[in-house]
Amino acid sequence: MSATSPIPIPTDTWKLGFIGAGKMAESIAKGVVQSGLLPAARIRTAHLGSARRTAFQSFGVTVVDHNDQVVEDSDVVILSVKPQVVKGVVLELKPKLSKKQLLVSVVAGVKLKDLQEWSGHDRFIRVMPNTPAAVGKAASVMSLGTAATEEDAELISKLFGAIGKIWKADEKLFDAITGLSGSGPAYMFLAIEALADGGVAAGLPRDLALGLASQTVLGAATMATATGKHPGQLKDDVASPGGTTIAGIHELEKGGIRGIFMNAVVAAAKRSRELSQG
Question: What EC number(s) does this enzyme carry (predicted)?
């Protein structure tokens, strides 16, 4: 903790700013507005491109021309830029940053210690959301910087809770988190496509097969989160003796599906670790 306690973010009047106006920033801002957590009038970002400006303005967010303007008028500042430019952006903004502000990074692969060093600001929280943020179903994880308080963490939990679910974890776990929830949506898209292809191979029309596959994966995930049952138990509940499901599961097990998914997560985590080390 710093020598002086951080000034609490004003609960009723706080303003949110985004440095970077890409798809993730848009998803977060839209979720925050739609949830009622914050009115669009208290959110701002900066961009000069007409398409990005229109995207944010379409749901009421103020779009200015320069990042300095965003920082000067925000209590919580979310960095949502590409990893290769974040250092330059932070160094450029450093003179404008205030100790009363809470800084948040959703930049992949960039560690808190580096963000704090570049900014000269240790009231930082790193968050890793994933792409289902676009439909309000993100799996996000946050890690607190040196001077971030539990009140700060609570505020960020509410903010990212507007686009899905959020957990708190030690930053040393972020490479593994990248391998699972960061890359995981792509694994599931592959599974949906494969299930649909199986349906077509079994005689279903393509559009029906794809619709059934997508809804089936959604339904299974919802059951796993809503019931609290172990997925193995849910699987057993479907697989009756000598039935169709156990015959399909037998084929999946012969193909080593568990090991394949485990290897995919480990390989992605390893690659994340390599990239974050430069």
Answer: 1.5.1.2
Q: Is 1 annotated as a binding residue?
A: no
Report pLDDT digits (tens) over 215-258.
Answer: 999 999 999 999 999 999 999 999 999 999 999 999 999 999 99
Q: Is 202 annotated as a binding residue?
A: no
pLDDT confidence band for 276 (50 / 70 / 90): confident
91-122 tens-digit pLDDT: 999 999 998 899 999 999 999 999 999 999 99
Is 130 labeled as ligand-binding? no
Q: Is 20 annotated as a binding residue?
A: yes
* pLDDT tens-digit map of 116-146: 999 999 999 999 999 999 999 999 999 999 9
267 is in an annotated binding site: no
What CATH code is carried by the domain that includes residue 263? 1.10.3730.10
Tell me if the pTM is above 0.85. Answer: yes
**For the CA atoms of the chain, what is the radius of gyration?**
21
Rounded Cα distance between 258 and 178, Å, is 19
**Strand stretches in the chain, DSSP E:** 16-19, 43-46, 62-64, 76-79, 102-105, 124-128, 138-144, 164-168
Domain presence at residue 7? no
Report how far residue 1's alpha carbon sits from residue 151's, in angstroms, rounded to the nearest whole number: 14
- Whether residues 186 and 141 share a domain: the answer is no
Q: Is 147 annotated as a binding residue?
A: no
Q: Calculate the alpha carbon distances from 31 to 37, 82, 94, 135 in Å.
A: 9, 21, 28, 9
Q: Are residues 169 and 201 in the same domain?
A: no
